[in-house]
Amino acid sequence: MDMSQYLDVFIEEGKEHLLILSKGLLELEKDPRNLSSINEIFRSAHTLKGMSATMGFNNMAELTHHMEDVLTRLKDGVMIADGMVIDVLLDCLDRLQMITESIQEGQSNGVSGTDLIEKLEYLISGDQPEHPTIISEESGQDYNQEQKASGELVNIEMPFKLNEYDMTIIKEVHAKNLNAYYIAIDIAKDCLMKSVRVFMVFKALEADGEIIKTYPLAEDLDEGKFEKEFHIILVNGLDGDTILQRINNISEVEVKTIKPISGPSWSYSSPPIIQEKNGAMINQTDEVIKTHKVKQTVRVDIEKLDILLNLVGELVINKGRLEQIGSTQKHNDLNEVVEQIERITNDLQNIVMKVRMVPIENVFNRFPRMIRDLAKDEGKDIEFIIEGKETELDRTVIDEIGDPLVHLLRNAVDHGIEEAHVRKAAGKPLTGTVRLIARYQGNNVFIEVIDDGGGFDVESIKNTAIDKGILTAQSVNELSTDEILQLVFRPGFSTAKNITDVSGRGVGLDVVKSKIESLNGEIHVQTKPGEGTTFRIRLPLTLAILQALLVQVGTDTYAIPLFSVDETTMITENEIKMIHSQEVIVLRGTVLPLVRARSLLEVPPSDYASDTMYVVVVRKGEKQVGMVVDSMLGQQEVVIKSLGKLMDGISGFAGATILGDGGVSLILDVGTLI
Fold first, then answer.
1. Which of 35-49, 260-274, 430-444, 541-555 shows the highest mean pLDDT?
2. Where in the sequence is the domain holding 80, given as residue range(s)?
């Protein structure tokens, strides 16, 4: 059977199980006797073993098999999840990650786990005999005695034979007080999608168990190459009634037989088929089956979603053009059709956007392990708190936000949280706290990285700025604390006395800022000496379609993203004042700096003098600025198009969009423009 078609699914599901393993092991480290965590870890390791064995990745299957041996002893209470055990299991997790990456690169067995298998075996041999004796409660004899020969183990009639490997698994299952069942299943004769019904049966049963054998072979079942009956060997901890109910809840499927393999005496055979007056043959369980509905999901290649989103974007553009034509033609029937198309387009756009949204926990779940290892290396005791994991972002943003957050978190651990003796002298808890918080606000997501460490030394930032020639001693004293803090985002700027392998507070923050701004977001920093530092990131929910304010500057139309706009107003020339050579206005008691859009965009001054001016109040971090434009054209939904390589290196623009009249408008990046 060609497994290459399942490789992407294997890698995707494998990464999900690795995250579950990481989360579970960190929870187990905090509570070594947490049986719930042990069971969750065991299930993921067991699933990885089965998946990798099926795909032929023996290095992963062998390593997870030995991990299972240790986890089994943890479940049985024979071993305790002490520091050594957790460290070895986390090392195994890292190796599994390396194996997954090598598989993704086409080197299926390029990474070995032999050294870690030896460590796992050492853990086992150090805690109990290599082959423990398991006593049967009924007979008081060794369960593994050879009198339970293969022929005696299976005394039921099946259309296939079990090999020695199957027998070994069944023996191990019984030793763990689990069950093994032979199940014969019928699919309705008129069923059009037999392979789908097989998949649904497998999914229902493998939620709490494992199918170790099928007849016909799994590939034949997958391709629908069988008449209407198939057979499986299932191992799990459920009773027969529960299994029967799960299968019979699937439409067009009927259980013919369930029999335990050398287990309890429970068994089941399908009820007789009843002949109705009209000659129709029905099963007694039909009514139960008909009333059950199964929620199904499907995995979709992200590239296909990108194509779909681009097509929706083109539809939005043409919708805008159609609206403009409808408004000029004044035709009732046309306007009615335009309104209907607008509703359909909006619904389609919303659905596509929701499909692309991914919980931010897909990124956040990577960090607890990283923080744990960094804190251990630094000799610091750190509590890591995550809030808002359910917050969703566009998949493109999710893929790009990981590295900036890694840098900020590493900085928080390495340079933010003080050493224990420093915290003790300051009267602070010996355990430092790092928080990672995500929340919605309007059409944006805000992410905060907060530590309760020593905070930035503002005076040190000033001195560094002077030493590097960024500012003069006179100009630095004219800056506010907020403006001084923003200097840490300058390339190569660092106040750290000792640069470590982990990070250097300030080093690389320019890269973080550039990445955030490339996502049409912004980053801002706040600090309180002795209390800690907060990095606040604002990101749009999506990078594809946004609401924008259209303004005119000279003869051109520009789009300003609404998430950067606080308000709009009109002023007269007389309201403008000068403070330190800077134009300002007083807006509701607040002094607001003014910038001229014509000057920023290098548009020649207008020959037409008007006493009234339009001002768009935009926000950059915590700072507000009034941008003077020639006129405001209204709000419109725009589709962001890339500017291409020809515009690389030109700051101030986030992209371009096509307007309803077919014209092209540049989208202003307020964060880099002002």
1. 430-444
2. 4-125
The token duo for 422 is 């420093």
| Cα distance between residue 110 and residue 491, in whole Å | 39
pLDDT at 365 over 50: yes
Of the candidates 297, 305, 320, 298, the one whose C-alpha atom is nearest the C-alpha of residue 352 is 305
pTM for the full predicted model: 0.63
In this structure, are residues 43 and 64 in contact, taking their beta carbons and an 8 Å threshold? no
How long a stretch of residues is the chain?
Answer: 674
Catalytic residue among 179, 236, 248, 411: 411
Same domain, 640 and 587: yes
68 catalytically annotated: yes
Is 46 considered catalytic here? yes
Catalytic entry in 17, 29, 40, 68: 68
Beta-carbon contacts of 422 under 8 Å, excluding residues fewer than 6 positions away, are: 454
Does residue 193 belong to any structural domain of this protein? yes
In a domain, 35, yes or no: yes
DSSP letters for 422-480: HHHHTT--SSEEEEEEEEEETTEEEEEEEE-S----HHHHHHHHHHTTSS-HHHHTTS-
Q: Does residue 382 fall inside a structural domain?
A: yes
| C-alpha pair distances (Å), 57 with each of 108, 218, 262, 453 | 6, 18, 32, 45
Contact 259, 267 (CB under 8 A): yes
66 sits in which H/E element: helix 58-75
Side-chain-side CA neighbours of 622 within 13 Å: the count stands at 11
Residues 209 and 74 reside in one and the same domain: no
Same domain, 394 and 506: yes
Q: What is the pLDDT of residues 169-206, one digit of tens each?
A: 788 788 888 888 899 999 888 777 788 888 888 888 88
The count of structural domains within the chain is: 5
pLDDT tens, residue by residue, 82-104: 889 999 999 999 999 999 988 88
Instruction: Please give the DSSP secondary-structure letter assigned to residue 659.
Output: -
Q: Which amino acid is at 588?
A: R
CA distance 297 to 306: 19
Whether residue 411 lies in the annotated active site? yes
How many of the other CB atoms lie within 10 Å of CB of 42? 19
Helix H or strand E segment including 54: helix 35-55
348 with 225, same domain: the answer is: no
470-507: pLDDT as tens digits? 888 888 887 888 888 888 888 877 766 555 555 544 44
In the set 17, 40, 46, 65, the catalytic residue is: 46
